[in-house]
Amino acid sequence: QIFNQHNAEAPNLEQASHRMAQMEPNLDHDVSWFLLPSYWAKMVVALISFLCFANSYDGDFVFDDSEAIINNKDLRAETPLGDLWYHDFWGSKLSSNTSHKSYRPLTVLTFRINYLFAGGFYPVGFHVINIILHCTISVLMVDVFSILLGGLQFSNKGRRLNLAPKSSLLAALLFAVHPVHTECVAGIVGRADLLCALFFLLSFLGYCKAFRENKEGHTFSVFWVLVSVILGAIAMLCKEQGITILGLNAVFDALVINKINLLELIRKLLYKDKSLENAGLLRKGLLFRITLLMCGGASILYIRWRIMGTGPPAFTEVDNPASFADSLFVRAINYNYYYSLNAWLLLCPWWLCFDWSMGCIPLIKSVSDWRIIALAALWFCLIGLICQALCSEDSHKRRTLTLGLGFLIIPFLPASNLFFRVGFVIAERVIYLPSIGYCILFTYGFSLLSKQAKKKKILAVAVLGILLINVMRCALRSSQWRSEEQLFRSALSVCPLNAKVHYNVGKNLADKGNQSAAIKYYREAVRLNPKYVHAMNNLGNILKERNELHEAEELLSLAVQIQPDFAAAWMNLGIVQNSLRRFEEAEQSYWTAIKHRKKYPDCYYNLGRLYADLNRHIDALNAWRNATVLKPEHSLAWNNMIILLDNTGNLAQAEAVGREALELIPNDHSLMFSLANVLGKSQKYKESEALFLKAIKANPNAASYHGNLAVLYHRWGNLDLAKKHYEVSLKLDPMAPGTKENYNLLRRKLEQLQKKGG
Question: Where are the TPR repeats (predicted)?
Fold first, then answer.
């Protein structure tokens, strides 16, 4: 239902109490848009934001989700809840040298709750929560934009008035359907940005509540200011950007509540004007509130610093090449180029990519690079907007533009590289909050065009077209985030120079068993980034499996030369050297891997295999025992211990190890099989039979299981059952070693028995 604007708003304006700051002209007067009651406006925003991302609800865990969720021990019940406060977002200790220092305990807590209620790693529940969060945030945006675009005013009954219902609806719709938000909503790791945004907005709305006059007649409430600070702290515990809301609350207070003219204030400060106290600084308790915000922010940062430690996060050159440039000029010019690309993603979110590092954006190294134009365009627009925000005689224009620029720039500051190095070049997720400022500026620009345009309906249709295109782009991008294969392949056309894109496509193909295609992408990743040690390691692994050992050794040797503490590459190099029968070098490589990664069960397992090949049985058993201590569910290490003890005649010890292993991994059929063999040799036929049958039930198509059970029956004298399982074994694997010979022996024995019986 569309209402006439003047009829809808006039009664509220009559009842309004004019004690609160109000923007003089009504922005809605010039906006050609739909006017809906607040409830319906929020319903429309919620529905459209849901439609944009609904198709991501049954997507997989993709990209960073593996490290932040699947491999994060902080989600599991056995990890004490208290540990969340001392670990980073990825589950590493904040005190560790390898920690990224991303401190988001409340986000991890929500992942843990998801995991608990789902009963495991089922992505649907994680995705549904993300979609609900974005819809909730988009609905809150209606209230936030009504304040930012229409001003803050309350009725005599203390109810906040929406003085810009059409503008706030348009801005909220622009926010809800912006395609750059897809990473935050469809990627589960984006939960951090969503939770941060939720408490960011609640902090802002709480701060606005502080100016509703109470029964005692006080002009502001200290309680709500403190609530706003607490909500800002919660936002920061979800993601680092949350702390910026305290600065934005101060800006809002100065501009909207106190109506400070920044240019006039700067002039008075410069000329030490004696009338400074009349400029608004001391009126209405502004300095007191800003002091509260500053003290709250400083306390939050201090507590975080104490928990996090003083060490900076460890990033590499490939994560953020510009920050490692020696020249200050190169760093500055590339940072500004990154800002221009972020601005372009807000204006034209068509080319989206899950990762923008590793050569995706080559460095600008001289002023002759044509991309300098993007910097000039960015600063031309920013300076123009800043001049209008400071110098315009229209106070409404000054405040709207300043608030728009404030919400665009201030939440982006933690990702700007200005205060500390960040671990990315561009990250679409960090634009979630700055897009609020973009929506304010877009809506204000639309109002100016509407004021000038003769055919306002055409302009409204154009904006509707933009919204519709964005909805379709969100749906398409959400579908790409449903699986790693689609996500990684979608990036090939956007960032063909990004080595990480090719690496991830190759890894996805390798996981699916398509090694030939994976090799192609791994080689391209190494070509694009000759120091990409992870690509070298994975390529070396595939070549090792294809028995191309010499090239595998070259790649792995180069990887450990580039990164000497790369434990996985050292281990894989040891495996290759072992296959080439260079045992001393292999042993040295294994021990180097363990030196760099103390808790490395797979390396101990491979070291044990090397010792077994060298008949160093005690060393082999010790290595496998270390593997099982570090990883009690390491089935291969347990199995090898049982088999080695069995082969060396230590049946009692083999039996003890087998029973210990089955207590820890009761459903492992390979352990049942190995222990059954030991029990059979110890003439514990009944128990051996039971384990063989249990192993066969778990894995009925294993020829060796049937073959060895047949041998047991053969020894036991149960010849008919022996014959039956020999036949099953040969049917499953006609070339099974020893089975055919044993079967022929059994047949001859049966024939002899038949002759005697005859």
Answer: 499-532, 533-566, 601-634, 703-736
Residues 6+ apart with CB under 8 A from 126: 61, 69, 111, 114, 118, 188, 191
For residue 485, is it within any domain? Answer: no
pLDDT band at 1 (very low <50, low <70, confident <90, very high): very low
Taking only the tens place, the pLDDT of each residue in 345-380 is 999 998 999 988 888 898 999 889 999 999 999 999
Residue 280 neighbours by CB distance under 10 Å: 18
CA dist 125 to 55, 60, 184, 486, 519, Å? 14, 11, 15, 21, 35
Q: Interior CA angle at 597 toward 594 and 601, to 5°?
A: 70
Q: What is the CATH number for 567?
A: 1.25.40.10
* Count of structural domains, the chain: 3
List, in order, residues 6 or more apart from 703 with CB less than 8 Å away.
Answer: 728, 729, 730, 732, 733, 736, 739
Q: 3-state secondary structure string, 722-744? A: HHHHHHHHHHHCCCCCCHHHHHH
- Of 164, 136, 161, 165, the residue nearest 36 (C-alpha): 165
pLDDT score for 424 = 86
Which 8-state DSSP code applies to residue 87?
B
pLDDT of 312 reads: 65
Residue of 163, 232, 237, 182 whose CA lies nearest to 203: 232
Do 363 and 506 form a contact (C-beta atoms < 8 A)? no
Is residue 161 very low, low, confident or very high in pLDDT (cuts 50, 70, 90)? confident
Q: Is pLDDT above 50 for 217? A: no
What is the extent of the structural domain holding 426?
Answer: 321-478
CA contacts within 13 A on the Cβ side of 480: 19
Q: Is residue 281 part of a domain?
A: yes
Question: What's the whole-model pTM score?
Answer: 0.84
Residue 207, helix vs strand vs coil? helix
DSSP 10-56: HHHHHHEETTS-B-SS-GGGG--S----HHHHHHHHHHHHHHHHGGG
Which tokens belong to 219? 């002009």
DSSP code of 64? Answer: T
Percent pLDDT > 70 in the chain is 92
Beta bridge partners of 151: 22
- How far is Cα 716 from Cα 688, in angstroms, rounded to an integer? 11
CB 331 within 8 A of CB 325: yes
Q: How many degrees, rounded to 5, is the angle at CA 91 between CA 597 and CA 302?
A: 115
d(CA 280, CA 305): 34
CA–CA distance, 462 with 453 (Å, rounded to integer): 13
pLDDT the model gives residue 739: 84
- Please provide the average confidence, as pLDDT, over all residues in the chain: 88
> 362: closest CA among 324, 321, 328?
321
The secondary structure of 539-608, three-state, reads: HHHHHHHCCCHHHHHHHHHHHHHHCCCCHHHHHHHHHHHHHCCCHHHHHHHHHHHHHHCCCCHHHHHHHH
59 and 175, same domain (yes or no): yes
Q: Would you state the pLDDT for residue 214?
A: 54
Question: Is pLDDT of 157 > 80?
Answer: no
Last residue of some domain: 308, 337, 370?
308
Q: What is the DSSP letter of 682?
A: T
Q: Does 439 lie in the same domain as 550?
A: no
Give the integer Cα–Cα distance in Å for 404 and 389: 10
End-to-end CA distance of the chain: 100
Residues 146 and 171 in one domain: yes
Q: Model confidence over 27-58: pLDDT tens digits?
A: 777 777 778 888 999 999 999 999 999 999 99
Query: Rounded CA gap, 641 and 619, in Å?
Result: 11
Burial of 486 (0-12, 13-18, 19+ CB in 10 A): middle
